[in-house]
TrEMBL record:
Entry GO terms, CC: cytosol
Source species, domain of life: Bacteria
Species, as recorded: Aliidiomarina sanyensis
Functional summary from the UniProt entry: Could be a mediator in iron transactions between iron acquisition and iron-requiring processes, such as synthesis and/or repair of Fe-S clusters in biosynthetic enzymes. Necessary to maintain high levels of aconitase under oxidative stress.
Keyword entries, A-Z: Iron
Family according to the record: Belongs to the Fe(2+)-trafficking protein family.
Protein name per its UniProtKB record: Probable Fe(2+)-trafficking protein
GO molecular function, one term: iron ion binding
Length: 90
């Protein structure tokens, strides 16, 4: 059976994640309030951020930065700023 959540990013009922993708309290909040679709959007943005800023995920500062960006993207409706990134023309 599919789980639905009211996605705080997309502002609509949508298919929820199958399991908690992130540890701790924040992970529980994401599981309860973020859809698969919004999580996939974040994953794409996160990959771009890691590549653009050459983040080392072993570095606690890099992980803190990514978590801050993730919260802003998923819960505050902010888009991720990627310096020099130009979306492909449709």
């Amino acid at each position: 059976m599919t789980r639905t959540v009211y996605c705080q990013r997309l502002k609509k009922e949508s298919e929820g994640l199958d399991f908690q993708m992130y540890p701790g309290e924040l992970g529980a909040r994401i599981y309860a309030n973020i859809s698969k679709e919004a999580w996939a959007q974040w994953q794409a943005k996160q990959t771009m951020l890691i590549n653009e800023k050459r983040l080392n995920l072993m570095d606690p500062e890099a992980r803190k930065f990514l978590e801050k960006e993730m919260i802003a993207f998923l819960f505050e409706g902010k888009d991720v700023e990627i310096e020099g990134y130009v979306p492909p023309e449709k």
